[in-house]
Structures are given as C-alpha cells and as structure tokens.
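Supplementary Note 3. Input sequence used for the single-chain structure prediction.
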Amino acid sequence: MRAAEGGDTVSGEENTGTIRGTDNNGNSGLSGENNDASENIAPLAIMDIYQQNSNGYYIEAGNPVYLTAENSSDTDGDILEYWWEIGDGGLLDGRDQEHTFTEIGKYTITLTVSDGKDQSQVKRQVEIIEAGQSIITAAGHSLTVEIQYVFENMGPGDAENLFCLIAIPQTHHPYQVVMDRRSNYQEGDQLFNDEFNIIAQFNLGKLARGKLKTAYINCDVTLYEYDYSDPDRTGSYEFGDRELLDYTKSEYFIDSDSNIIKSAAQSAVGQERDPLAVAGRLYDFVAAALDYDHSIIENGKFRFNYASQVLQNGKGVCTDYSILYTALCRAAGIPATIVQGIPVFSILNEPEKELSYGHAWVEIKLPGYGWIPVDVTSEENFMGYNYFLNLQTYKGSGIFHKSLQIDGESYYPAGFYYTWTGESEPHIVQKISYRVKGLDVSELSVTRESSFL
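The predicted structure, written as discrete structure tokens, is reproduced below.
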C-alpha cells in the first residue's frame, strides 16, 4: 500500500538538511551544485519508503518495508548505483530493496546514490512501532502452499523467450507469515510494481511445439484465523491522509466516478457518515445485489468487468464482488483496494486439495483499524470471524504490471509472454494449480464450507 507522503531528497535541511555530495577525490559541495559547466553534476538522491498502515515515518515491526530510489536522477544521464544503510546494521545495494525491522525504536536510513564520479546522500529517521491491535488472531496453522504454472505449446511452430510472471506471497502480520520459499527456476529480478508487490520472473526459454514446461513456487507459511477488535476510534480519518486521495479515486475497472456507482453508494449509505457503519451498509448492499455465478467457475471463463457493469449484471464471482465493493467504498469516501491470493480454506474442502483458480477480496481503511481485509463474496456478517485462511499474493487489480505501453504508461503483462519467428503465432496454453499440504480441514476451528471463490 502506498504510504509515503513523498520522497526525501537532497534539497533542504538534512532530514530535511542540506545534503552535500562528495566526489571521488574527497571534494564536497552542495549536491547538484556546479560552478563549471564542464564539471560533472552530482546525482539527485530521492528516497521513498512504503509500508501498509504506515506514513513512511512510523513503521510497523515485523512487516516488510519497501525502500526505493526510483525517483533519483542524474542530469548527465550517467548510470547510477545505490547503497542503503538501514540503521539496525543492515547494508543493502540496489535501487529497490525490502527490509524488515524486528526491534522497536528510532533508526536512520541513509541512501547513497553515485554516478561513478560524484555521490549524494539523503537520510530519513523512522520510528519502529508495534503493529496495531485492531485484529485479534486466533488459531495459527502451518502449511505448505504449492503454486504451479504449466505451459504447453499447441503449435504451430516453436515459442522463443517464454517468460512467466508469478506473484510472490509475503509476510503480512497479523494474517500470514512466510517462512520459506522454494522454486525450480531462479526467480530472475524481483519486480516491484507501484504497490510493491513482488513478482518472480521465470525465464523458461524455448518451448518447442508439443512440449511442456513447468514453473513452481512452494511456500511454507503460517496463516491465522482472526477476529476484529473494537478499538477506540475517532470516526473520521486523519487530516492530510494521502491514502484518502490514492484509494478513493477511479481506476481500471473500479469506476467509482460513474453515475451508476455513485447513485448506488448514496442510496445504500443514506445519511450515515460514520466510516465503519458506511462500510457495513455497502457490504450488505453488495451481498443483496449480486448472486454468485457458478457457471463461470464451471466453464473457466474468467474476466474482469467494470464495477458499473457488475452491478447491472447482478451476478458474478469473487472478482466481481470485490470490484463492486471496492468501487462503492471509494465512491463513499472509504479507501479500498482489491487483494488477490490463494483460498486455502476452499482448497482444503476439495477432494484433491487443489484448485485451478485463486480468490479475490477487498481491503478497506477505517479509522481506528487501519487497513483490514473484508471478504464480501462470503456474504456472511460484515467483519465477522474470519476462518478463510486466504494467502495474499497481490494487491491491486493484477491486470497489468509495468512493461507494456498503454496510454503512455508502462506495464508488464500479467501471466506470461513470449516471442516467435515466422508468420504464425504458436498457441500457448497455461494451466495453473494451487495445492495445500500439511493441513487438514478438521484441524480448523470452523469446518463449514461457504460455496464461494
């Protein structure tokens, strides 16, 4: 979740100060200062820090924090190198990094950016705090989740440079802890998108006609059943909360600015203004407005629809429920985003403990609670006891990652992509499998199965 108010830069006072660049001969001056047009200009160092439920300065212990220097630049166009000093003894190199603080306290994070001739630094002090108490964890379950993608070339011809992209589960207290990950392919670059999901890129190489190739990731995790506490809450959001802007606006498929969605949200909410009560009313509205469309599961024809279209259709699957609820929440001023992952509880209720599709739900931000998951597809009580054991893999719609040019912006295509020679494109069939091992449904506190995904 994007949480920083904006990056620290080399301008201003350190920690808002004057940061000086130092060249390789030890000469120093203001970063970017250039008294001679022929001299090298030091790079501009900009640091951004992201963590869900964080404003970029107060960081929760135990959950990953994402560090990026992606907005750093160099006037001369030189290739830049990046070093991070974390403050708790951690030393990292590279533009994008992930770190987890384990001890509470204040730490100074230092980013050094070098163009090979000069370097600049920027610092930010962060305070590591204990995670909020809005979630009450109950039983914890250790298990292994197997993610497998199988590709078959149906021809004609061979596919070259087949790449597979798989969203990687991460630790997300208090819901899930990822203890280990194993894979049959080296996980290429870790590609952070704008919400800092981690995408493993598998280079499967050439796939000849009639042949198969497989990519898998096995994750040892602990997942928790949980309930919601009733913390002291103000009933309103904090002034200046950036996420009120970022997660209440319209985007792909979440057309919260459409008249249909705005009218439906207003009708459902009425005169209610308390965010918690508003979210509950919108939950009940979606549960009543939609019927679960089992035919989509049976024929396997999944697609994304705009929220306004979902409402008009009156039916759908988990993705449709989640898109509609997200759009309605945003239209009512409640920050919301779609979450995707693997439905462990549902898999445990399958005879072979295996499914070929994932699950989608929603996270909303409420005063006093922060960001919390809400699974509207279940059509159970709003913020009721959660026993679904959903393993989060991705936040956001997941339609695109950055790579392809669409309306001037770059995206990576979700799933897989490849090249070929000749006039005829080979037809590549992808089969996805999610399996669970090491846990039986009889071990759960709740053993009933709501028919949803």
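The chain has seven helices and 28 strands. The domain at 132-453 is CATH 3.10.620.30 (C8orf32 fold).
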